[in-house]
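name: query_chain
kind: protein
chains: 1
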Amino acid sequence: MSIWWSLHLRREAASVPLARRLLLGTMETAGVDPDICFDLSVALSEACANAVEHGGDTGHDDSRGAYRVTAYLDGEKCRIEVTDSGPGFPASPAAPEVPRRPAPVAAVSYDAESGRGLSLIEELADHVTIGNKPGRGGAVVSFDKILKWQKDAPLMAV
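structure:
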C-alpha cells in the first residue's frame, strides 16, 4: 500500500491545522496506530508552524507567501517533507551550499512559548533531515517514522 499527497499552502496560521487534519485522516483511514498518528501530526504541526513563521515574505501574490507539505505512506514508513521559500538555515562557513543540520538547539525553558519545534520533531520522528533547498533558497525539514498498524487495518501494508 502506498499513499501520498502534497499541499501548497499559504503562510497563514490556519494552514497548520489543515495539514495536520489531512495527515491524521489519511493515517487513521489506513489503520495506523493512534500513537504513531499523534506523534507524526505533532511533528508536522511544528514543521508547518516554523514554515509559517520563518518561511519567507507574507505577500500572497508570489510563492514566497506559501510553503509545501508532502506526505508519503509507503510500505511500513511515513515520510513527511515541509519546504518553504524563506531565508533557510544559516550556511555553514565550510560548505555554504551543502544542506546541514542547524547548530544544536539550546535548552529551552519548559514554559517558553517558542524555540522547541525542531527538537520536538527530532524526538517524535525516527529520522530527521534539516537543511536548505539548493539554488533558490528556503528551508527543508523532512522526517520519517516506522509505522505500526492497528489489528485488521483496512489498508495495512503487506
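note: The helical segments are 15-30, 34-54, 117-124.
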